[in-house]
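Re: Re: ligand-bound prediction request (bumping)

Still looking for help on this. To restate: I need the protein modeled with heme C bound, output as structure tokens. Inputs repeated here so nobody has to scroll up.
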Amino acid sequence: MTQRTITAALAATAFLGFAFAGHAEPANDTLIIDGSEIITRAAPAAHLDGALTELISGWQFRDTETRAIQMDDFDNPGMIFVDRGIDSWNTADGTDGKSCASCHEGPESMKGLRAVTPRVDAKSGKVMNIESYINDCRTTRMGAEAWGDKAEAMTDMLALISLQSRGELVNVAVDGAAAPIYAQGKEIYYTRYGQLELSCANCHEDNNGNYIRSDHLSQGQTNGFPVYRLKDAKLTSAQGRFVGCVRDTRAETFKIGSDEFNALELYVASRGNGLAVEGVSVRN
Ligand code: HEC
Ligand code: HEC
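Reply:
Sorry for the wait, this slipped through. Here it is.
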């Protein structure tokens, strides 16, 4: 640890009663769902420049029981939300009387999308995550209202669409139109925020494997999102998770859907290039 990291860690101890104390290696388990292996460890992409020596899914940092729940779709409470997503996919909404199915046929037409998003639309320069695509269709193609970012209808649909790419390797573009967004996201990732002066990297890059309060710190990868959190008994999107993490540093957070969080989501997703999309993962 550098002197500054130690100071920040001490400040954190004073404020929240935690310290980066106690280290445990993550599990080295194999995630198999429905007979297929989901890659949870991979070699880092070149663009990470050695920042991580190995990519490890958050699944490996959870305890045996939590890992087991994700291995069986009948036990995985996130799958209930996928079912609700299917209902909503087939239900007409908005002034045009259309459902998602009217134009996209089945949800399997979304296969592959989760692995390559967020991505930057070359024409508009806008960052498109799955939420932006959904609301774009709702408002411009259905005459329906946009769903709020934390609305259950939105996280249900995220779960349904993500599941279609389960097992596919994350491959978010970092060059071309994405280059400036990637740079912006990377800068945010390494900036210290809040009274605790902690960056995402301080916790998830420098201290993964360490315990913070009773939590085993992971690399903060987003390949598992949306995530069913046992403690909330509901689904959380990647940006919804970022809000909680920034608040833990006692900082004002960026808004979900802001340029800053969109850039951060793209950057964080690209740090997981090579890990597999987990569909709906289970975390504590
Ligand atoms: C009136 C037809 C229509 C309806 C209804 C519609 N969409 Fe779309 N959707 C489109 C078109 C057209 C595109 C753009 C396809 C392209 O550019 O390749 C699109 C793109 C998308 C994309 C991005 C897909 C990709 O591979 O880039 C997603 C995700 C999406 N729609 C989700 C939904 C969801 C969820 C609903 C229901 C809430 C919905 N759409 C309703 C026509 C529609
Ligand atoms: C004070 C330490 C701390 C900071 C700073 C922090 N996080 Fe976290 N984060 C946690 C803890 C604790 C968890 C829950 C355990 C885990 O999965 O690491 C978590 C979980 C996550 C997860 C969920 C991983 C999974 O597989 O479920 C993501 C994604 C994440 N953080 C991203 C970020 C981002 C992006 C930032 C910067 C804006 C950030 N975090 C800053 C402590 C932190």
